[in-house]
Amino acid sequence: MRSYSFTHAITRQPPASAIHGLRAVDTGAPDLAQMRAHHADYIAALKSTGAVVVELPALEAFPDSLFVEDTALCLPEGAVVMRPGAPSRLGEAAEMAPHLRALYGDVRAVTGAENFIEAGDILTTETEILVGRSARTNAGGVAELAGIVADWGYRLREVFTPPGVLHFKTDCSLLDAETILATERLDASGCFKGSRVIHTVPGEEACANAIRFNDLVLFPAGFPRTRDKLVAAGFNLREIGNSECAKLDGGMSCLSLRFSPSA
Protein backbone atom coordinates (compact mmCIF):
# COMPACT_ATOMS: atom_id res chain seq x y z
CA MET A 1 0.00 0.00 0.00
CA ARG A 2 1.66 3.17 -1.20
CA SER A 3 0.25 5.33 1.61
CA TYR A 4 2.23 3.51 4.29
CA SER A 5 4.64 1.06 2.61
CA PHE A 6 7.99 2.79 2.08
CA THR A 7 11.54 2.00 1.01
CA HIS A 8 13.13 5.27 2.19
CA ALA A 9 13.00 7.91 4.90
CA ILE A 10 14.89 11.15 5.47
CA THR A 11 15.62 12.47 8.96
CA ARG A 12 17.74 15.33 10.29
CA GLN A 13 19.64 15.47 13.56
CA PRO A 14 18.29 17.92 16.15
CA PRO A 15 20.49 21.03 16.29
CA ALA A 16 21.62 22.53 19.59
CA SER A 17 19.51 25.55 18.59
CA ALA A 18 16.36 23.39 18.82
CA ILE A 19 15.89 24.63 22.37
CA HIS A 20 14.90 27.95 20.75
CA GLY A 21 12.42 26.37 18.31
CA LEU A 22 8.93 27.67 17.61
CA ARG A 23 6.14 26.69 19.99
CA ALA A 24 2.51 27.68 20.44
CA VAL A 25 2.73 27.52 24.23
CA ASP A 26 5.95 27.71 26.22
CA THR A 27 6.12 24.65 28.45
CA GLY A 28 9.86 24.90 29.03
CA ALA A 29 13.00 24.36 26.98
CA PRO A 30 13.54 20.84 25.62
CA ASP A 31 16.29 18.69 27.11
CA LEU A 32 18.59 18.38 24.10
CA ALA A 33 20.29 15.17 25.20
CA GLN A 34 16.93 13.50 25.80
CA MET A 35 15.62 14.77 22.49
CA ARG A 36 18.59 13.28 20.66
CA ALA A 37 18.17 9.96 22.47
CA HIS A 38 14.50 9.82 21.43
CA HIS A 39 15.52 10.74 17.90
CA ALA A 40 17.98 7.83 17.79
CA ASP A 41 15.22 5.46 18.91
CA TYR A 42 12.98 6.83 16.17
CA ILE A 43 15.61 6.22 13.48
CA ALA A 44 16.23 2.71 14.80
CA ALA A 45 12.51 1.94 14.51
CA LEU A 46 12.44 3.13 10.88
CA LYS A 47 15.50 1.05 10.03
CA SER A 48 14.06 -2.04 11.72
CA THR A 49 11.48 -2.29 8.92
CA GLY A 50 14.23 -2.62 6.30
CA ALA A 51 13.96 0.94 4.98
CA VAL A 52 16.92 3.03 3.85
CA VAL A 53 17.16 5.98 6.24
CA VAL A 54 19.04 9.07 5.07
CA GLU A 55 20.35 10.82 8.19
CA LEU A 56 21.10 14.47 7.48
CA PRO A 57 23.33 16.57 9.76
CA ALA A 58 21.95 19.24 12.06
CA LEU A 59 21.30 22.74 10.70
CA GLU A 60 22.14 25.12 13.53
CA ALA A 61 20.78 28.14 11.64
CA PHE A 62 17.31 26.55 11.66
CA PRO A 63 16.09 25.55 15.14
CA ASP A 64 13.06 23.67 13.78
CA SER A 65 14.93 21.81 11.05
CA LEU A 66 14.61 18.41 12.72
CA PHE A 67 10.93 18.54 11.73
CA VAL A 68 11.72 17.64 8.13
CA GLU A 69 8.20 16.56 7.18
CA ASP A 70 7.03 20.15 6.75
CA THR A 71 9.54 20.79 3.96
CA ALA A 72 8.20 18.42 1.29
CA LEU A 73 5.42 16.17 0.08
CA CYS A 74 6.93 12.89 -1.15
CA LEU A 75 4.92 10.69 -3.50
CA PRO A 76 5.99 7.72 -5.63
CA GLU A 77 5.88 9.85 -8.79
CA GLY A 78 7.92 12.76 -7.44
CA ALA A 79 8.44 15.23 -4.62
CA VAL A 80 7.07 18.72 -4.06
CA VAL A 81 9.10 21.20 -2.01
CA MET A 82 6.80 23.15 0.27
CA ARG A 83 6.75 26.84 1.14
CA PRO A 84 6.48 26.91 4.96
CA GLY A 85 4.08 29.31 6.63
CA ALA A 86 6.58 30.26 9.33
CA PRO A 87 9.03 32.71 7.70
CA SER A 88 11.93 31.43 9.81
CA ARG A 89 11.49 28.00 8.19
CA LEU A 90 11.66 28.98 4.51
CA GLY A 91 15.35 28.13 4.35
CA GLU A 92 14.70 24.59 5.56
CA ALA A 93 12.82 23.76 2.37
CA ALA A 94 15.68 25.07 0.23
CA GLU A 95 18.12 22.92 2.21
CA MET A 96 16.00 19.80 1.63
CA ALA A 97 15.57 20.24 -2.14
CA PRO A 98 18.99 18.89 -3.26
CA HIS A 99 18.57 15.76 -1.13
CA LEU A 100 15.25 15.08 -2.82
CA ARG A 101 16.76 15.61 -6.27
CA ALA A 102 19.37 12.95 -5.45
CA LEU A 103 16.54 10.42 -5.03
CA TYR A 104 13.84 11.63 -7.41
CA GLY A 105 13.85 12.38 -11.12
CA ASP A 106 10.96 14.83 -10.72
CA VAL A 107 11.11 17.45 -7.96
CA ARG A 108 8.65 20.36 -8.11
CA ALA A 109 8.04 23.28 -5.78
CA VAL A 110 5.40 25.63 -4.41
CA THR A 111 6.69 29.06 -5.43
CA GLY A 112 3.82 31.55 -5.22
CA ALA A 113 4.95 34.59 -3.24
CA GLU A 114 1.65 34.80 -1.34
CA ASN A 115 1.21 31.05 -0.98
CA PHE A 116 2.36 28.93 1.92
CA ILE A 117 1.89 25.31 2.83
CA GLU A 118 3.52 22.82 5.20
CA ALA A 119 3.32 19.06 4.78
CA GLY A 120 2.31 18.66 8.43
CA ASP A 121 -1.07 19.71 7.07
CA ILE A 122 -1.14 16.93 4.46
CA LEU A 123 -2.46 13.40 4.94
CA THR A 124 -2.03 11.10 1.93
CA THR A 125 -4.37 8.12 1.81
CA GLU A 126 -4.78 5.40 -0.80
CA THR A 127 -7.39 7.44 -2.67
CA GLU A 128 -6.67 11.13 -2.12
CA ILE A 129 -4.52 13.86 -0.63
CA LEU A 130 -6.19 15.69 2.24
CA VAL A 131 -4.80 19.16 2.92
CA GLY A 132 -5.84 21.01 6.04
CA ARG A 133 -6.04 24.79 6.03
CA SER A 134 -4.29 26.17 9.11
CA ALA A 135 -2.14 29.05 10.31
CA ARG A 136 0.71 27.42 8.33
CA THR A 137 -1.21 26.51 5.14
CA ASN A 138 -3.37 28.97 3.21
CA ALA A 139 -5.85 28.69 0.34
CA GLY A 140 -3.24 29.76 -2.21
CA GLY A 141 -0.84 27.05 -1.10
CA VAL A 142 -3.57 24.40 -1.32
CA ALA A 143 -4.60 25.55 -4.80
CA GLU A 144 -1.03 25.64 -6.09
CA LEU A 145 -0.32 22.15 -4.76
CA ALA A 146 -3.48 20.82 -6.42
CA GLY A 147 -2.17 22.06 -9.76
CA ILE A 148 1.28 20.64 -9.18
CA VAL A 149 0.11 17.07 -8.46
CA ALA A 150 -2.75 16.96 -10.98
CA ASP A 151 -0.79 15.27 -13.76
CA TRP A 152 0.37 12.60 -11.30
CA GLY A 153 -3.26 11.54 -11.04
CA TYR A 154 -3.98 12.61 -7.47
CA ARG A 155 -7.25 14.00 -6.18
CA LEU A 156 -6.67 16.72 -3.59
CA ARG A 157 -9.33 17.63 -1.04
CA GLU A 158 -9.19 20.73 1.12
CA VAL A 159 -10.27 20.29 4.75
CA PHE A 160 -10.01 22.53 7.80
CA THR A 161 -7.88 22.21 10.92
CA PRO A 162 -9.66 22.92 14.25
CA PRO A 163 -8.95 26.34 15.80
CA GLY A 164 -5.92 26.27 18.06
CA VAL A 165 -4.43 23.15 16.43
CA LEU A 166 -1.11 23.76 14.69
CA HIS A 167 -1.29 21.25 11.85
CA PHE A 168 -3.97 18.98 10.41
CA LYS A 169 -1.86 15.93 11.29
CA THR A 170 -1.49 17.14 14.88
CA ASP A 171 -4.95 15.61 15.28
CA CYS A 172 -4.83 12.61 12.95
CA SER A 173 -2.73 9.90 11.35
CA LEU A 174 -3.11 7.06 8.88
CA LEU A 175 -3.07 3.55 10.39
CA ASP A 176 -3.80 1.50 7.27
CA ALA A 177 -5.62 1.79 3.95
CA GLU A 178 -9.02 2.10 5.64
CA THR A 179 -8.26 3.36 9.15
CA ILE A 180 -7.53 6.80 10.58
CA LEU A 181 -6.51 7.63 14.15
CA ALA A 182 -8.08 10.98 15.03
CA THR A 183 -9.23 13.20 17.83
CA GLU A 184 -12.98 13.45 18.30
CA ARG A 185 -12.86 17.19 17.60
CA LEU A 186 -11.32 16.65 14.15
CA ASP A 187 -13.49 13.69 13.22
CA ALA A 188 -16.57 15.75 14.14
CA SER A 189 -15.87 17.90 11.07
CA GLY A 190 -16.83 14.97 8.83
CA CYS A 191 -13.53 15.05 6.96
CA PHE A 192 -13.01 11.29 7.35
CA LYS A 193 -16.45 10.18 6.21
CA GLY A 194 -16.16 6.76 4.58
CA SER A 195 -13.09 5.75 6.59
CA ARG A 196 -12.85 3.64 9.71
CA VAL A 197 -11.91 6.09 12.47
CA ILE A 198 -10.40 5.18 15.84
CA HIS A 199 -10.61 8.04 18.34
CA THR A 200 -7.89 8.95 20.78
CA VAL A 201 -9.04 8.48 24.36
CA PRO A 202 -10.17 11.76 25.97
CA GLY A 203 -7.19 13.41 27.62
CA GLU A 204 -4.77 11.69 25.23
CA GLU A 205 -5.40 13.81 22.15
CA ALA A 206 -1.67 14.54 21.79
CA CYS A 207 -1.04 10.98 20.60
CA ALA A 208 -3.14 11.43 17.45
CA ASN A 209 0.07 12.18 15.57
CA ALA A 210 1.52 8.73 14.97
CA ILE A 211 2.81 7.18 11.74
CA ARG A 212 2.27 3.90 9.96
CA PHE A 213 5.63 2.90 8.49
CA ASN A 214 5.61 -0.49 6.80
CA ASP A 215 4.59 -3.04 9.47
CA LEU A 216 4.97 -0.66 12.42
CA VAL A 217 2.93 2.14 13.93
CA LEU A 218 5.38 4.55 15.56
CA PHE A 219 3.48 5.89 18.53
CA PRO A 220 4.46 8.49 21.15
CA ALA A 221 5.10 7.03 24.60
CA GLY A 222 2.93 8.10 27.50
CA PHE A 223 -0.60 7.46 26.23
CA PRO A 224 -1.46 4.00 27.57
CA ARG A 225 -5.22 3.95 27.05
CA THR A 226 -5.05 4.84 23.36
CA ARG A 227 -2.06 2.51 22.96
CA ASP A 228 -4.07 -0.38 24.35
CA LYS A 229 -6.98 0.50 22.10
CA LEU A 230 -4.77 0.28 19.00
CA VAL A 231 -3.09 -2.94 20.11
CA ALA A 232 -6.54 -4.48 20.65
CA ALA A 233 -7.41 -3.41 17.10
CA GLY A 234 -4.47 -5.47 15.84
CA PHE A 235 -1.82 -2.83 15.15
CA ASN A 236 1.88 -3.45 15.79
CA LEU A 237 2.97 -0.45 17.89
CA ARG A 238 6.47 0.76 18.65
CA GLU A 239 6.42 3.39 21.40
CA ILE A 240 8.95 6.20 21.02
CA GLY A 241 9.69 8.92 23.57
CA ASN A 242 8.48 12.30 22.36
CA SER A 243 8.39 14.46 25.49
CA GLU A 244 10.99 16.95 24.26
CA CYS A 245 9.77 17.36 20.69
CA ALA A 246 6.27 17.83 22.07
CA LYS A 247 7.51 21.02 23.76
CA LEU A 248 8.06 22.33 20.20
CA ASP A 249 4.69 21.06 18.92
CA GLY A 250 6.45 18.16 17.19
CA GLY A 251 5.21 14.60 16.83
CA MET A 252 6.02 11.28 15.17
CA SER A 253 5.22 12.33 11.62
CA CYS A 254 7.16 15.60 11.87
CA LEU A 255 10.51 13.83 12.23
CA SER A 256 10.78 12.15 8.84
CA LEU A 257 9.97 12.22 5.17
CA ARG A 258 8.72 8.77 4.16
CA PHE A 259 8.56 7.63 0.55
CA SER A 260 9.29 5.09 -2.18
CA PRO A 261 10.77 6.98 -5.14
CA SER A 262 9.98 5.52 -8.54
CA ALA A 263 12.90 3.84 -10.29
Question: Would you kindly provide a written description of the structure presented here, covering whatever features stand out?
Answer:
- By secondary structure, this protein is of the alpha/beta class.
- It has helices at residues 32-48, 90-101, 139-149, 184-187, 224-232, 243-246; strands spanning 8-12, 52-56, 72-74, 79-81, 107-109, 122-124, 129-133, 156-160, 172-174, 179-182, 196-199, 211-213, 216-220, 237-240, 257-259.
- The strands form 5 sheets. Strands 2-1-15 form a 3-stranded mixed sheet, covered by helices on one side.
- Strand 7, helix 3 (139-149) and strand 8 form a beta-alpha-beta unit.
- It is globular, with a radius of gyration of 17 Å.
- It starts with 7 loop residues before the first strand and ends with a strand.
Defining traits:
263 residues, alpha/beta, 3-stranded mixed sheet, 6 helices, globular
Ordered list of secondary-structure elements with their pairings:
Layout: E1 8-12, H1 32-48, E2 52-56, E3 72-74, E4 79-81, H2 90-101, E5 107-109, E6 122-124, E7 129-133, H3 139-149, E8 156-160, E9 172-174, E10 179-182, H4 184-187, E11 196-199, E12 211-213, E13 216-220, H5 224-232, E14 237-240, H6 243-246, E15 257-259
Parallel strand pairs: 1-2, 4-5, 7-8, 10-11, 13-14
Antiparallel strand pairs: 1-15, 3-4, 6-7, 9-10, 12-13
